[in-house]
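Hey,
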Amino acid sequence: MFKSGTRASWCILNYTVVIRIGAWHHFLKESFAPRYEKRAAQPTIPSWSAATVTPDTALTLTAVYRAVQIIGTPISKMPIETYRYATGVELKVENPVLVNKPDINSNKRDFMFQTVAALALEGNAFWYKNYGSNGQVNNLTLLPASAVSVSYKNQQDITKGIVYSYQGKTYTSKEIEHLKLFSRTGNLRGVSPIESCRSDLSAALDLRDYAKNWFSSAGVPTGVLKTNQNINVEQADTITNNWHNKQQNRQIAVLGNGFDYQQVQLSPREALFTDIVEQNTISIARLFGIPARLLLTTVPGGSDTYTNLQDENQIFFRHTLMAYTDAITDALSNCLPRGTRIEFDYQHLFRADVSARYDYYATAIAAGFLTVEEVREREGLNV
């Protein structure tokens, strides 16, 4: 025993009390702590991570891929006409080589389609202009829009002009023709629809990936074996393994001892999240200005009568295609000698059926404002 009143005895007594209180606290914690059921395997839900939205990832969505194709195809096939001012009169002239084949390393269709795709996905397109010995542009090269940066030549004096950087080299506006789909004051680059509507496209990508993983990694069982008998864990595992072996080997399964199999089913609409996918498709159609029916979906309350479809096509041309053709028209005209401009011929987009066209031509010829030769030219018969 230690003498009371001494410093050593007091420290040891205090230490003993602390140990006993700590032990009692541990006992209470273990006795009254909630007990959680432990299982061998816990069901999971599909893994999720926010999708990265870029032009490349956006194109993996079928609606985006199809929307770009719907816009690019008619424009890439449109005939182009050239006009030149002469003595105060604008005359239609033969297309220069640059108009019929802007890039000697590519055909006209691919060049135009790729330009439209760049505008649709990036909001910008950049043509590098090569000049001939006569000082005129004789070739255009489409540059990757994401690899071109745009800045003022002098940040302190914006009147000095704009320069473009590509692969470590700097170019002036004389060497680069910059096309923009959507311009904003103060922005040197055009506004990208993919960047501006990133949230909508990210939601569509997330849903697509979530649905893809639903059956492979969601932990959703194909069915449930039920019984009214009491069984232990070992018996349950044995019965489950036997059932799986029978199913994998395509053998007849025999149920007994009160067992019953109930299949877990989801309707196709539920399994594929059809309603949400349709809403995402409509959102993408709205983003690109595409009639919903062209993306194989419909807007609730819409009507597909012949007159409505004609009006829809006119609206698609005026409010969607013209945004692209106007940008290309101005840019290509800038690459031609002063006083020369180009124009897309939209007539083939609104061609009526053969009977209606011929009735129109007959009336026009009889009235004298069209000739037979002009009709043949419109029908592509003068070859």
